[in-house]
């Protein structure tokens, strides 16, 4: 694969492809490029972010069909072959002969690597084992002291998924502050976010203009970069006293205050109007899954705010206003808010 041509062609579908490692780009050129072009012909855009229920069901269907074709016993054997060393050679041969990559990604407009990770998360029996006991937390600390960030090894010792042990260790590794943010913590957070964004921009810039070196250039950061998916565990490590989710929530608050110049957009009559606008716009979209909502487009229903702010407000709205919302589909939640809550809010306004 010609790396420069691969990057150029993939950039149409994955704008940040030049910040991805060369080995990953080569794999994507083989596994994804033709698929992306076919989806483009069908008018389907490549997706990122959370998987919808429809996509999860498609993954389940693809796995079930592959198991029936090959006769492999279970999804766990297929996706976690290293757990079954005696069957590894046979399973690997069956996967190669029956085009596992193509079959797994069928009908899903996403990079293959993300589909594979999602499939592993869905089918890993070690992934849904509830809260960690105090004994498990102590074991996790001990195993990390012995093996560092070898999450695969630790996950096998803990009988938990890789992701689960990595995220839990991130949460318990140090004393986490749950009180109000101090000025020092807020400054650390802002510096940490700036550092990772600047590093990302400089990497992209170096890939595009590798021939012309520019040192000590003051980078202007496009506003969109401030909203993009950030490496929160890396930012958490730089802040030191806060869990990654707290950092993410605080950053959204900082962005919102900057963008609205500190106005209280969600209080009083403004707040009522924002809720009304949000419900109406969601109802007009007629989507069946929250992952199909364009939250950035929706942000102006409330004001000039980040999409994470709008998502948080919608979450509070459904939790506080929709009875048994956990048992309802996304479209049922929107219908309830439109039919039951909207008239009440309009009357109150």
TrEMBL record:
UniProt cross-references to SUPFAM superfamilies, sorted A to Z: Homeodomain-like
GO molecular function annotations of the record: chromatin binding
GO biological-process terms attached to the record: termination of RNA polymerase I transcription
InterPro entries assigned: Homeodomain-like_sf, Myb_dom, SANT/Myb, TTF1-like
Assigned GO CC terms: nucleolus
Transmembrane region(s): none
Pfam families (alphabetical): Myb_DNA-bind_6 (PF13921)
PANTHER family: TRANSCRIPTION TERMINATION FACTOR 1
Name recorded for this polypeptide: Transcription termination factor 1
